[in-house]
Amino acid sequence: MDNGLQHKTFSIITTLLVTLFIAGCSDNTPQDMLENYSNRVSNALDQSDRLNLKAPVSLPEFPRRRDRLQPVEDIRQGLVEVFNLRHCQLITLVAERNSSLGKVMPPSRQLAYELKLYVGLRDCLKQLIQTRAEQELIQQISEILVIKERNLPRVLWNGIYTSEAVERNFSRSEPPLPLEKSNSFISDKTALEVLTKLAALQNDDTEWPVPAELETLENHYQALYNNRFGSRWLHSVNLLTATLNHTASAIEKRLGNRPLCYNNQTNPKANIVRNVFTKYYAGELQPYMARVDQQGRQWLQLNNQLLAQFSQIPQPMRHYQQQALSMEFQGSVWQTYIQARDRHTKAWQTLLGQCGLMPGQG
Questions:
Q1: pLDDT, tens digit, 9 for 90 and up, residues 60-117
Q2: How many beta carbons lie within 10 A of that of residue 114, not counting itself?
Q3: How many Å apart are CA 252 and CA 243, to the nearest integer?
Q4: Is residue 330 classed exposed, middle or buried when 0-12, 13-18 and 19+ CB atoms within 10 A define those classes?
Q5: Which residue has the higher pLDDT, 288 or 101?
C-alpha cells in the first residue's frame, strides 16, 4: 500500500473513532441527561450518592388479555341462514365475517364489522316492518338485534382493550420519550378521541348511522401501535420521579448537615450550585419535564374519558386504572410524580433561599 493510500485510510479511521467517541460521550438519551443533572447536583453539594437509571422500570403491569376480555353473548341462529332470503343487503357483510379470514379478524376490524352490522340490522328491521314482511323473519331479526344491543358495550370494550395497538401503549418495555420534540402525541391524541367517540355510542339512544370514523379506524390503531406514546410516557415519568427524589434527597442531606450559606451571604460554592441549577435544571431537565407533564396530563385525561364510557369494566382493569391512569389516587404513577416534583421544588427553594439566590431576594 502506498503512502498516500495509507494516509487516507488512517484519516478515515481517525475520523470514525472521533465521531464514535463524541457520540458515546454525548448526553443524547433522557437517562443520560437525568443522571448527569442529578449527579452534578450531588457533586456541587459534596454528596457521594450517584443516580443510576439503568435498573428495570418499576411500573404497574397491564392486565393479561384474558383478564381484559369480556364475554359476548352468542347468537343461537346463524346469521347466514337468516339472510339467505336476500333481505336488507347484509349477506355480503355477514359472509365476509364468516369467511376463513373473517374468523381471524383483529379486534379493530371486528369492532368495525359489529358496528356496521348493528346499524344494518336496525335499519333492516325498520324496512321489514314498513314493507310488512313475513312475521317470522321480523321476529328473527328482532331477536338478533336485541342480542346485538346487549352485546354492544362488550363488543366496544373488546374491540378497543383487547387490541394489540392499545396493549402496546401500556407496555413496560418501551424506551422513554426522546429529548427532542416529536409529533407522535398528536396522532395518538386523535386516535384516543376517535375511540372515545365510538365507545360513547353505547350511551347514545338516538338511531346513529354507521360512524364515518370507521373508514380511517385502522389508521388510528396503526398510529397507536407505531408510536406507543403511552408506554414511553409512563417510562419517562417514572424516570423523572426517580431523578427528582434522588436530587431532593441530596439537597436535603446537605441542608441537614450544614448550611450552604450563612446569613444569606453567597459564596463560591453557592455560585457553583446556582450554575448547576441554571444550566442543567432550567436549561435541560425543566423543558423535558414540562413537555412530559403537559402531554401526560392530556394523555391521562383522554384515557380516563375513554374508560368513563363503560359502566362494566373488568376488575383487573379497574385496579390498573387506579394505579397507572388515575390523577387523584394517592400512590398512582401521576401522584407519585407530583409528590416528587413538589419535594424537589421545595428542596431547591430552601437551598437557594438560604443563599439569597431565589428570585426577588437581595
A1: 999 999 999 999 987 755 554 555 445 677 777 776 766 655 566 888 999 999 999 8
A2: 21
A3: 14
A4: exposed
A5: 288
Q: Please state the φ and ψ torsions of residue 60, each to the nearest 5 degrees.
A: -60, 145
Residue pLDDT, tens place only, 173-200 = 999 999 998 888 999 999 999 999 999 9
What CA dihedral angle connects 201, 194, 216 and 223, to 10 degrees? -140
Q: Are 232 and 175 in contact (CB under 8 A)?
A: yes
Round to whole Å and give the CA distance between 285 and 37: 7
Distances (CA, A) of 357 to 44, 270, 271, 286: 16, 9, 9, 18
- What DSSP element (H or E) covers 62? none
Element (H, E) at 362: none
**What string of DSSP letters covers 156-222?**
HHHHHHTSHHHHHTT-SSSPPPPSS--SHHHHHHHHHHHHHHHHGGGG--S---S-GGGGGHHHHHH
C-beta of residue 141 within 8 angstroms of C-beta of residue 128: yes
- Three cell numbers at 6? 495509507
Q: What percentage of the chain exceeds 70 in pLDDT?
A: 86
Q: What is the DSSP string of 68-137?
A: H----PPPSS-HHHHHTT--TT-HHHHHHHTSTTGGG--HHHHHHHHHHHHHHHHHHHHHHHHTT--HHH
d(CA 226, CA 29): 20
CB of 174 within 8 A of CB of 228? yes
Percent composition of the chain: helix, strand, coil (DSSP 3-state, to 5): 70, 0, 30
DSSP assignment of 5-18, as one string? HHHHHHHHHHHHHH
Strand partners, 265: 262
Residues recorded for the chain:
362
3 state SS of 232: helix
- In which residue are the cell numbers 407519585 written? 336
Q: What interhelical angle do 30-44 and 229-257 show, nearest 10? A: 0
Single-letter code of the amino acid located at 165 = A
CA atoms within 13 Å, Cβ hemisphere of 298: 15
DSSP letter for 54, please.
-
Q: Give which of 208, 213, 219 is closest to 194, Cα–Cα.
A: 213
